[in-house]
Structure to design on (416 residues):
């Protein structure tokens, strides 16, 4: 459950978040996403303005004048003027199409920003979760080391173990404590990074909620690359934005061509003039009119021609960039798919290995308590277990990160 409110979080709050809650909060508060949303709102305003260009413009005017020459006179003029562009070389239509394309691009850029933030949040969240899981295992080892140190001190005092063995037990306990201290510092660093991505105060006490997912590595699967690519092509905003940029560049060519076409406009004026005479009477003169105007471009020092050439070059650039976007998308997805498959294989192998070393370590701890193995042998098994555990955690969370990144590419819900 998301334990947050839009009004903000005080520095004294302790906030427990799932991955889904982190993402939803980041979408509403991260600077990158909020900037993209503002750009989208701006483009919506521009689209509305492009639609309004098809409406007529209307204005009203009134004036009063006085003349103190040979004869004092006065006159009042009034009028309502209107104009409507009937044809503008299709520029208004192409402006509307371009504004609509830009609006669609900015809507997709919001999704693109969300995807970018999601990838960063997922990585920061999983890194913090991994280190908290590592801390749990380290605390178990620390407690075992503490018990062994206490028992070793008694055994050393009665001469059952050598001084060197007791020194090894002391060093092992100190090392285990140092590992825990370092892991806690790393978790605080992870927490700070995640708070920054979420747009929260640095002093907020953030806790990540572990996943309730009970699936083991052997039950995990990576879907085939062809299916991933087909789904990504339908959902990835990067590809859709690239296509819209080509469409926008094509509309810019049409807009530049509009400069060579005539403009036809309709104008109307409804007004008059009111002139009082010396006999306290008045004279009213009607000045209403209607007009049809045609403007044909003939020569503007090559400006229109230059703009047309530039827009055609920009179209070719957009088409090249569109092709490159497709290549990059396929390469990135292929690399990510390969990383996920490799991480899953290592995850499966190291999961079984960590379980085996853990069982072996527990047996050696029992044997050491009974005096059946030496201090060096027991500590060697502990070292083997911790090494296997670190490999397991690293591969587990590397796979989970790759899996969630593939979910981002294919538009799936991102959750643990």
């Amino acid at each position: 459950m998301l334990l947050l409110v839009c009004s903000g979080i005080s520095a004294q709050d302790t906030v427990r978040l799932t991955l889904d809650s982190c993402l939803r909060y980041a979408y509403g508060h991260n600077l990158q996403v909020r900037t993209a949303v503002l750009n989208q709102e701006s483009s919506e305003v521009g689209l509305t303005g492009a639609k309004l260009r098809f409406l007529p413009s209307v204005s009203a005017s009134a004036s009063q004048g006085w003349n103190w020459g040979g004869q004092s006179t006065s006159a009042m003029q009034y009028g309502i003027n209107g104009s409507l562009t009937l044809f503008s070389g299709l520029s208004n239509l192409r402006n509307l199409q371009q504004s609509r394309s830009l609006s669609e691009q900015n809507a997709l850029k919001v999704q693109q920003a969300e995807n970018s933030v999601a990838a960063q949040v997922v990585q920061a969240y999983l890194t913090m979760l991994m280190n908290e899981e590592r801390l749990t295992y380290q605390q178990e080892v620390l407690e075992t080391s503490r018990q062994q140190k206490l028992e070793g001190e008694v055994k050393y005092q009665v001469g059952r173990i050598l001084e060197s063995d007791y020194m090894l037990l002391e060093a092992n306990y100190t090392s285990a404590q140092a590992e825990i201290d370092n892991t806690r510092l790393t978790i605080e660093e992870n927490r700070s990074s995640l708070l920054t991505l979420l747009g929260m105060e640095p002093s907020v006490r953030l806790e990540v909620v572990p996943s309730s997912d009970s699936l083991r590595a052997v039950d995990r699967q990576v879907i085939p690359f062809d299916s991933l690519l087909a789904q990504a092509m339908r959902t990835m905003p990067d590809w859709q934005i690239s296509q819209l940029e080509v469409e926008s560049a094509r509309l810019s060519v049409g807009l530049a061509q509009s400069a060579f076409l005539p403009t036809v406009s309709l104008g109307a004026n409804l007004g008059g003039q009111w002139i009082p005479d010396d006999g306290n009477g008045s004279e009213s003169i009607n000045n209403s009119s209607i007009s049809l105007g045609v403007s044909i471009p003939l020569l503007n020092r090559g400006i229109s021609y230059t703009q047309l050439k530039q827009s055609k070059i920009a179209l070719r650039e957009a088409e090249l960039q569109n092709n490159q976007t497709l290549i990059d998308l396929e390469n990135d997805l292929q690399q990510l798919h390969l990383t996920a498959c490799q991480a899953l294989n290592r995850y499966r192998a190291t999961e079984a290995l960590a379980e085996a070393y853990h069982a072996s370590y527990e047996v050696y701890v029992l044997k050491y308590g009974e005096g059946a193995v030496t201090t060096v042998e027991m500590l060697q098994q502990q070292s083997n277990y911790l090494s296997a555990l670190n490999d397991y955690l690293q591969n587990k969370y590397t796979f989970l990160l790759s899996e969630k990144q593939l979910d981002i590419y294919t538009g799936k819900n991102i959750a643990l």
User: Anything to note?
Assistant: The mean pLDDT is 86. The helical segments are 19-29, 31-52, 91-157, 163-198, 225-235, 237-258, 303-370, 375-410. The first strand starts at residue 14 and ends at 17. Strands lie at 14-17, 57-68, 72-88, 205-208, 263-276, 282-286, 289-295.
